[in-house]
Amino acid sequence: MTRAYIALGANLGNREQTIRAALAELEATPGVEVAAVSALIETEPVGYVDQPRFLNGAAAVETSLPARDLLDLLLAVERRFGRAREGVPPQGPRTLDLDLLLYGSARIEEPGLRIPHPRLHERRFVLEPLAELDPSLEVPGKGKIQTLLAELH
Predict the structure, then answer these.
(1) Which whole-number Å values give the CA distances from 108 to 40, 59, 62, 115, 121, in the listed order?
(2) Catalytic residue among 79, 80, 85, 99, which?
(3) Is the pTM of this model over 0.85?
């Protein structure tokens, strides 16, 4: 089993209900156990700012799925909850956003799969929930979560 970390986010519809239902779907998947979920926090949009506020958090999962299969599962769950990527601006509004942030201590560079998530270390709304889940967590190639948080302005 590998411990993976997933960013949770939504800014359309009943955000908390959608996030909780998506976590239940993940938990119901063979080979995936939701081990912990951070508090969900209200955050301002980043990049594309003309949209509603987000509800963000993170989850730790224990999984026997390979990283690519876990990512495919996350994308399928997003689609089931109405996530559309076509015709929506990058960083635009979404019913559900599930990003694979970390997969054990792996560093993966493949088409469509980059672990650690390439912008994880720049995003307070990702780092704070991760620090809540595991204050000693280390991002491969970047350093400890607490240090990365302290470096953000």
Answers:
(1) 28, 20, 18, 5, 16
(2) 99
(3) yes
